[in-house]
Design a protein that fits this description.
mainly alpha, 323 residues, three-stranded antiparallel beta sheet, 2 domains, globular, 5 strands, binds zinc ion, Nucleotidyltransferase, domain 5
């Protein structure tokens, strides 16, 4: 986990950061919650009929697109076509997970216990405590998530589970998938009229927080603009939390705090450098470049042109900006 913490290129002092609060500062409340979680994780998971009812009611309230809701419903009913369930229906298949090759592929194994799934879940510190509890089924796991998690946390859990299932299906069909430990950064430099001056895409190790990726992209954008001799810069991003952290001038005591300071340092040598939050639709080209990065070279740059496969994305963004 330490390897994925981004390191500043400047000399900076070591800092103690508390990862269980949004601002990185220790609070008794967060420590109390962590200790209560530890105690509760050691208790066996049991469900009374009333608690089971709560799970089914809770599923209806999950805030996700319909296809993810349908997926969670099926996973909870144990009706996904896992290898074990196919074998139980007398189909001629081995019931072993194809990803790890070690265990029977149940719903819980595929979405939670498999080493491929754990590699994803354990990158998010909020999901790590759940691994201290032994769950008998995906139903029990979801029950725990619904019981402890916020609306956002439950939606994130559901979406990540769905992504893992999609990845598993693509691998079974021998289709390309994103590497588990990598993510892309996409940067688009435009002039004042919205036309593209240059773009870049870079592959990095998957960090702990979404905000880290956004802040790294902002830093890369500033450095790239300087290299292109663009000295008045407005850095746009669609992650509100990251943009707010970049706009705030006080020290940010988080895992990405040093990268924010790096961005401020680089920005200070420009004539002007501001940060601005934009809608995700306006940032589609940067996201397309980021997706492209994962499946291509470690670092790519295009000056006064675009990758030909992204020209349609550029035109659709131009129409949004014009609107
Ligand atoms: Zn497996």
């Amino acid at each position: 986990m330490i390897k994925v913490i981004p390191v500043s290129e400047r000399w900076v002092k070591d800092l103690l950061i508390w990862p269980l609060t949004p601002d990185g500062n220790y609070s008794v409340r967060s420590a109390y919650c962590m200790l209560m979680d530890e105690v509760s994780c050691q208790e066996p998971s049991t469900s009374s009929p009333e608690e089971s009812q709560q799970v089914w009611k809770g599923i209806w309230k999950i805030w996700t697109p319909n296809r993810i809701f349908q997926f969670i419903w099926r996973a909870t009913r144990d009706s996904l076509p896992t290898k074990l369930s196919l074998k139980a229906r007398h189909l001629p298949v081995r019931d072993i997970c194809e990803l790890c090759g070690d265990f029977q592929e149940t719903t819980l194994h595929s979405l939670w216990l498999c080493e491929h799934a754990q590699a994803v879940w354990k990158l998010d510190i909020n999901f790590v405590p759940y691994y201290k509890k032994g769950f008998r089924s995906f139903f029990n796991l979801l029950e725990e998530v619904l019981c402890r998690g916020s609306t956002y946390h439950v939606a994130l859990f559901s979406t990540m589970a769905w992504c893992l299932w999609q990845r598993r299906n693509r691998l079974r069909m021998s289709q390309s998938v994103w590497p588990l430990h990598e993510i892309g950064l996409g940067v688009v430099i435009r002039d004042g009229t919205g036309h593209v001056i240059a773009t870049s895409s870079q592959k990095i190790r998957l960090p702990h927080f979404v905000e880290t990726t956004e802040v790294l992209a902002a830093l890369q954008a500033i450095v790239f603009a300087k290299e292109l001799s663009v000295f008045k810069v407005v850095v746009e991003g669609d992650c509100l939390k990251a943009v707010q952290a970049l706009k705030a001038r006080e020290h940010c005591n988080t895992l990405y705090g040093t990268i924010i300071e790096d961005a401020h340092n680089q920005g200070a040598s420009l004539q002007a450098c501001h940060f601005q939050h934009v809608r995700r639709e306006s940032n589609k080209l940067a996201h397309a470049l980021a997706r492209r990065a994962v499946l291509s070279a470690d670092f790519d740059v295009w000056v006064e042109e675009l990758p030909s496969d992204l020209e349609d994305v550029f035109l659709s963004v131009l129409s949004i900006l014009a609107y």
